[in-house]
């Protein structure tokens, strides 16, 4: 960014509550934007939205015959709306990403289990998938491979995927893979079972959605 925007960011950050940094960081992680969107920039936009709606609220309130209390409540409602907007947008990104992960996971698991049954190791099968496919699950696998290359233990790198996605199906998949590695059970069988489970869960979700 320009020095001017950076200075504006630094100035506005003084007005940000201390706990907001962790909140925004978590939301960006779940939206798949951590590292792509600077946390301070998002907080600055959040503060700017509130300031903009504060001014807008004061402007509209001054044109109405409000009592003092009504005027304050009216302006406060505008500020709250300004505070909600950026988080509302991030929440919609998170929701869409979680849905995309839930949709993509069964297909990825099928391909992983086929590759492992064909004789590839789990790592080689994952590498093959990340070279040929795109999508949020693949992005997470790439990040996991990067973490392992940089020296992170594989179990921890896998568990980090589940934390970043926060999707029940992904938690189940990662837990079963980590357990299979720890107990030394066949990865092929584990992946086949997981792929079957995911397909069944997808069928049940589709049925529940149809009933609604």
Give an overview in words.
The protein is mainly α and 212 residues long. The relative contact order is 0.08.
Please count the helical segments: 9
Low-confidence stretches: none
The ordered string of helix (H) and strand (E) elements is HHHHHHHHH
Helix content: over 70%
User: Which class do the helix and strand fractions yield?
Assistant: mainly alpha
Strand runs, count: 0
- Overall radius of gyration: 23 Å
Rounded mean pLDDT is 89
Q: What portion of residues belong to β-strands?
A: under 5%
What's a concise summary of this model?
This protein is mainly α.
Please write out the topology:
Elements: H1 3-13, H2 20-30, H3 39-62, H4 68-117, H5 122-132, H6 136-149, H7 154-165, H8 168-183, H9 187-211
Question: Key terms for this structure?
Answer:
212 residues; mainly alpha
């Amino acid at each position: 960014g320009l020095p001017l925007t950076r200075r504006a960011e630094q100035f506005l950050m003084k007005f940000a509550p201390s706990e907001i940094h962790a909140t925004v960081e978590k939301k960006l992680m779940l939206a798949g934007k951590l590292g792509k969107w600077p946390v301070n920039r998002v907080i600055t936009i959040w503060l700017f939205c509130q300031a903009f709606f504060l001014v807008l609220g004061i402007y509209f309130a001054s044109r109405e015959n409000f009592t003092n209390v009504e005027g304050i409540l009216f302006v406060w409602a505008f500020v709250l709306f300004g505070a909600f907007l950026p988080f509302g947008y991030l929440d919609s990104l998170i929701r869409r990403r979680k849905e995309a992960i839930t949709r993509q996971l069964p297909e990825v698991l099928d391909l992983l289990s086929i590759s492992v049954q064909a004789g590839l190791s789990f790592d080689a099968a994952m590498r093959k998938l990340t070279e040929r496919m795109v999508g949020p699950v693949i992005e997470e696998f790439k990040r996991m491979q990067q973490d392992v290359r940089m020296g992170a233990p594989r179990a921890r790198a896998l568990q980090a995927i589940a934390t970043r996605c926060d999707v029940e199906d992904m938690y189940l998949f990662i837990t079963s893979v980590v357990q299979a590695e720890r107990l030394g059970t066949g990865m092929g069988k584990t992946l086949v079972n997981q792929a079957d489970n995911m397909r069944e869960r997808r069928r049940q979700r589709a049925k529940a959605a149809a009933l609604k």
